[in-house]
């Protein structure tokens, strides 16, 4: 049996703003917008592949607030980039909040962490 990743589902206080963040900062594109219960579902793609679905709070739901603190469960997601310093400078110019500025790991790879909407922690990775 073969499994293929279909999507990651993000719940957002403002799904449109969250989708715009991923489009503006990572080059994601909106694949579709569909009704979902009493909210909507925005499906994003990256390089033609499914990336994530973002939806708002549906009637009767009370989502727990996000946190960028380390936690059990899904702690963060990561995006690889060819030039971390250039990407970081461009993101900072757009007002993206950095949790951890770019630094070099002992392996020679470089990483940084940013805060996406709804306190989602994202790792930016430049391979050695």
Any overview of this molecule?
The strands form 2 sheets. Strands 1-4-3-2 form a 4-stranded mixed beta sheet, with helices on one face. Strands 5-8-7-6 form a 4-stranded mixed beta sheet, covered by helices on one side. The protein folds into 2 domains: 8-59, 2,3-Dihydroxybiphenyl 1,2-Dioxygenase, domain 1; 68-128, 2,3-Dihydroxybiphenyl 1,2-Dioxygenase, domain 1. It is α/β, with parallel strands linked by helices. The model has no long low-confidence stretch (mean pLDDT 94). Helices cover 17% and strands 41% of the residues.
Write the layout of secondary structure elements.
Layout: E1 8-11, H1 15-26, E2 29-36, E3 39-46, E4 49-55, E5 77-80, H2 84-93, E6 97-104, E7 110-116, E8 120-126
Parallel strand pairs: 1-4, 5-8
Antiparallel strand pairs: 2-3, 3-4, 6-7, 7-8
Which superfamily, in CATH terms, is the homologous superfamily of the largest domain?
A: 2,3-Dihydroxybiphenyl 1,2-Dioxygenase, domain 1
Poorly predicted runs are none
Average pLDDT metric: 94
The CATH architecture classification of the largest domain is: Roll
Structural class: alpha/beta
> The CATH topology of the largest domain, please?
2,3-Dihydroxybiphenyl 1,2-Dioxygenase, domain 1
The helical percent reads 10-25%
- Rg: 15 Å
- Gross morphology is globular
Order of helices and strands: EHEEEEHEEE
The CATH class of the largest domain is identified as Alpha Beta
How many H/I helices? 2
- State the domain count: 2
Distance between the termini: 34 Å
Strand order of the largest sheet: 1-4-3-2
% residues in beta strands: 35-45%
| Major sheet description | 4 strands, mixed
The total count of strands amounts to: 8
């Amino acid at each position: 049996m073969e499994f293929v990743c279909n999507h990651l589902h993000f719940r957002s206080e403002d799904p449109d703003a969250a989708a715009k963040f991923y489009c503006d900062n990572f080059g994601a594109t909106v694949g579709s917008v569909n009704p979902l219960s009493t909210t909507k579902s925005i499906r994003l793609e990256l390089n033609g592949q499914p990336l994530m679905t973002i939806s708002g709070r549906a009637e009767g739901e009370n989502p727990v607030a996000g946190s960028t603190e380390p936690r059990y469960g899904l702690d963060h997601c990561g995006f690889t980039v060819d030039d971390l310093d250039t990407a970081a400078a461009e993101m900072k110019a757009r007002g993206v909040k950095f949790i951890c500025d770019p630094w070099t790991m002992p392996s020679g790879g470089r990483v940084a962490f940013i805060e996406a909407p709804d306190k989602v922690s994202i790792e930016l990775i430049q391979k050695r």
